[in-house]
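Researcher: Please predict.
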Amino acid sequence: MKNLILLFSLCFSISTLAQPMGRVEVVADPRLEKMEQSFIKNSKRDQENDGFRIQVAQSNERAGILKMQADLTKKYPQIKWYVEFQQPYFRLRGGDFRNRFEALSSVALLKKEFPQAYLVADRVDLLLDPEKVDELRNPDNDDDD
């Protein structure tokens, strides 16, 4: 009888400790999202390498270069456009090419509209692809099976 009471109380206590099935909601501090974005942005800096850009214009008038940048961004959205200042000129450069070969088709396209366009060596941003962003978010995930 003692064993029966002990067994019954043990089963009852285990069933009361079990959690009900349901949904788990994680409430995270919004600063964690900002910290994650900052980490990804800082990791992106490590992705800068020697490469090439296409210079299409150079002027000492900032407003003209910024207008040209806006126009080219609309016309060629696949190319990222940069305004760089090196005294006394503002330079408008486009693209993030790892080597000359990658830039050839874009140079040919832009030379039709800007005959003075030419390729320049520069530090370029090699953007993170989605897989690398996931690696940054989950460094413990090792898929080296």
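Model: The two ends are 55 Å apart (CA to CA).
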